[in-house]
Amino acid sequence: MTSASSPTTDTDDPYLWLEDVTGDDALSWVRERNAESLEVLTGSERFGETRDGLRAVLDADDRIPYVRRRGDLLYNFWQDATHTRGLWRRTTLESYRTGDPEWELLLDVDDLATAEDENWVWAGAAVRYPDYSRALVQLSRGGADATVVREFDLGTKEWITDGFTLPEAKSRVGWIDEDTVFVGTDLGPGSQTTSGYPRVMRRWRRGQNVTDAEVVFTADETDVSAFAGHDHTPGYERDFVGRSPDFHTTEEFLLRPDGTQVLIDVPPDAETDVEREWLLVRTRSPWTVAGVEHPAGALLCFDFEAYLAGDRTARLLFSPTPSSSLSYHAWTKNHLVLAVLADVVTRLEVLTPAQDWARREFPAGPELGSVDLIGVDPDRGDEYFLDTDSYVQPSTFLRGELGSESDPEPEVLRTAPARFDATGLEVRQFFATSSDGTRIPYFVVGDPARVPGPTLMTGYGGFEIALTPGYSGIIGRGWLARGTYVVANIRGGGEYGPTWHTAALGEHRHRAYEDFAAVARDLVSRGITTPSQLAIHGGSNGGLLMGVMLTRYPELFGAIVVMVPLFDMRRFHLLLAGASWMAEYGDPDVPEEWAWIAQYSPYQNLSASASYPPVLVTTSTRDDRVHPGHARKAVARLREQGHAVEYYENIEGGHGGAADNEQRAFQWALVFEFCWRQVG
After folding, report:
1. Is residue 69 one of the residues assigned to a domain?
2. Fewest C-beta in 10 Å: which of 85, 210, 439, 519?
3. Cβ neighbours of residue 500 closer than 8 Å, sequence gap 6 or more
4. What is the 3-state secondary structure of 19-60?
């Protein structure tokens, strides 16, 4: 074992060769580990039944086809058993209302993958405003973050062969007008940041070679990324450029037609939104404006042009409380909708600028559930699409239009059928007490009559991402049919706004891990489960959380599933996009920062003498965000030390671990089978 006080260097890590993503030796090792684990986990009748049941959930024809409006039409991307790569299609609202729409097919990704002999995965499309006749389609090989970009004609359903096309890269691209886009992509040395994202933004005109396009902004090489965007709002057409020095800060400029840049002078960690005449600023740390201090998590409104001229007259639109935070906001033509988390349960509020920002409640979601905006179009009107659900209540998809003073009852467009039997299941919220006395909320989903019993718990605790209630046919069919499911809302996430996040940043990262351990202990003290019956799972930053639980709190758990994880925190900043996360964790090359990272970095703290619960580690070869070397090296060291560990690496899948429904069903069946074997 390498001690936590002496960083692992390149010379004393015997498994560096596993960081060679597609190297022959590394892939041979992967195939051997896959074969060993699949032989153990996939041979039972239960595994096959679970996999097939999950696939049925994912491919069900009666799923809600969620839509986004683009002009007069509603767009949808759809995957099922026949179309595993997916269909991009559109229809009218009138046809959608019938329940059996007439879909106009735009692009069949399966046919494209076959014709081009590529493992294409859909990565989205930017449809050109206001005519919606062209799209910039992004396609990923195997689910990686890097994509190719191609211009697509929505009328002829054909590629524009001499249009805006880009080879595979982590690009930024967006429409300015019919013949111009903003673009940032990999054009060789100097064009990317150390995090692997665009450093140089250009104004690219049709017919130009992208290398000849006008440079409009250049970020520093050590920044996370540069960006540029065009506001198409009629009467308020504007261009913006800027950079993200780190994951949590931004410097943004208004780009005048003459090329001059006007700084939007807000705190670097604040989030801004310019809509028509307004500038909205959401604070992430306390900010004093015109002599008034506003807390972290507040939403302020200014007149945009007056603000640029130096006027700091502010209107406070939202201020957090100890139990509530602003999750996000969205504009319609005449209103501003706020999504507020109250003890992690979502509620919506409508503000109306024309009525001096009058405020009213929006239709509520289910108790201990969520209500989320799916889509609005502020250039079109006050239409909205809404989704409501809970852990045990399937989704309802609604459409409505906001009124001037009150809101008509929204129209139910679709109600999803139940994917599992929720009879006897209850959703309860409890609060555990962490090491420093902080109350940590968590949700328990299950039958109270079946406790103590097998329990599967998850958490994330990073990047201000909140884990809110939501219906999952995968969790329901794969776990809730026989066990209890728990979601821990630990610090580092966004459940209570920026202060909840910053409480576990950098040197305070240990708080997130103490919170998760506190929830595990609270489950046992309440009689919901026992340590030997408690399995946990998490991915990405949540995979790092699982690694810390393994090395610091192994006695609390009966099984641990570590998915697409960060694990070697000595080298995370040197691998793929890792440099962009130093604002979250710290810089391992700075001795005082490595001192706190070393206390929890799982790879450096694995011990041959420790008693660990069984572990399953999963990742993807095509994950170009979190390097698969983290997972590979974790397994190699665990094996070397004699611990029980299974491993599965999907060749496709990107950071999500799976590229299609078949792969998702297989991966989750592995997780559930592993957990049932250990704690069931």
Report:
1. no
2. 439
3. 325, 464, 491, 492, 493, 494
4. HCCCCHHHHHHHHHHHHHHHHHHCCCHHHHHHHHHHHHHHHC
Q: Are residues 412 and 550 in the same domain?
A: no
Domain count, the chain: 3
Is the domain of 557 the same as that of 603?
A: yes
Verify that 456 and 476 share a domain, yes or no. Answer: yes
Q: Is the pLDDT of residue 165 over 60?
A: yes
Spatial separation of the C-alpha atoms in residues 631 and 18, rounded to whole Å: 9
Which residue range(s) make up the domain with 44?
A: 22-55+426-679
Token duo for residue 353: 């600028």
Task: Specify if 508 maps to a domain.
Answer: yes
Residue 98: its pLDDT value, please?
97
pLDDT of residue 1: 33
pLDDT in tens, 75-93: 999 999 999 999 999 999 9
Distance of CA 567 to the CA centre of its chain: 19
Quick one: tokens of 547?
A: 């690694």
DSSP class of residue 476 equals: I
Note whether 364 and 297 are same-domain residues: no
* Residue among 131, 168, 171, 175 nearest 151 (CA): 175
In a domain, 413, yes or no: yes
In a domain, 211, yes or no: no
Catalytic residue positions, numbered: 540, 655
3-class state of residue 132 by DSSP: coil
Tally of helices (H runs) and strands (E runs) in the chain: 14, 39
Handedness of CA 675, 677, 678, 680 (dihedral sign): positive
CB 549 within 8 A of CB 565: no
pLDDT per residue as tens digits for the range 129-162: 999 999 999 999 999 999 999 999 999 999 999 9
Phi and psi (nearest 5°) for 569? -80, -5
Percent of residues in the chain assigned helix, strand, coil, to nearest 5 = 25, 35, 40
- With contact defined as beta carbons under 8 Å apart, do 349 and 342 qualify? no
